[in-house]
Amino acid sequence: MKVGKKVGDYITLSPLGGGSFGVVMKARNVETDAIVAMKIIQRDAIKTPRMHRHVKTEILAMRRIEHPHIVRLEQVVASKKRIFLIMEYMPNGELLEYVKSHKRLSESQAKLYMRQLLSSLAYCHELGETLSPTSLRSILGIDAVSNGVVVTELVSDTLLWSQILFEML
């Protein structure tokens, strides 16, 4: 997706990252000037019934979830070729990059972040969603408001917590 492209009430500003289904762009609401993250899913990348279920499950789950440590889905915009997930923008990047730049987390930081991650996971399970962050890359870094972590991508697969713990240490 090109910078400057208009999608609904939003204009794309810059790429934030990519994944198997498409890209995530930083975007701005033209009416309110609010900055958001726009996950752009290419419909032609959804090739199997399993992939279709994955996308549908993620959207339905994100619509239900309201938790301070899970990124908020604000709107879904669909076209013939793409699905646009308009999400809360978290400006401070991935926890993985934070950990790499600081070499390691202190014990108190690791405890705080794990408590927040477990809180978000418990919340999902209370809602009947068996969702988990896919990796440390799907966990955003320090949020200025909560001084904590925010899960950005949820999937209905089992999370290997040992992998995340290993990456954090």
From TrEMBL:
Keyword Nucleotide-binding carried by entry: yes
Entry keywords, A to Z: ATP-binding, Kinase, Nucleotide-binding, Serine/threonine-protein kinase, Transferase
Residues at which ATP binds: K39
Alphabetical list of Pfam families matching this protein: Pkinase
UniProt domain Protein kinase: residue ranges: 10-169
PROSITE patterns reported for this sequence: PROTEIN_KINASE_ATP, PROTEIN_KINASE_DOM
SUPFAM superfamilies listed in its UniProt record: Protein kinase-like (PK-like)
One Gene Ontology term of the molecular function aspect: ATP binding
Protein name as annotated: Protein kinase domain-containing protein
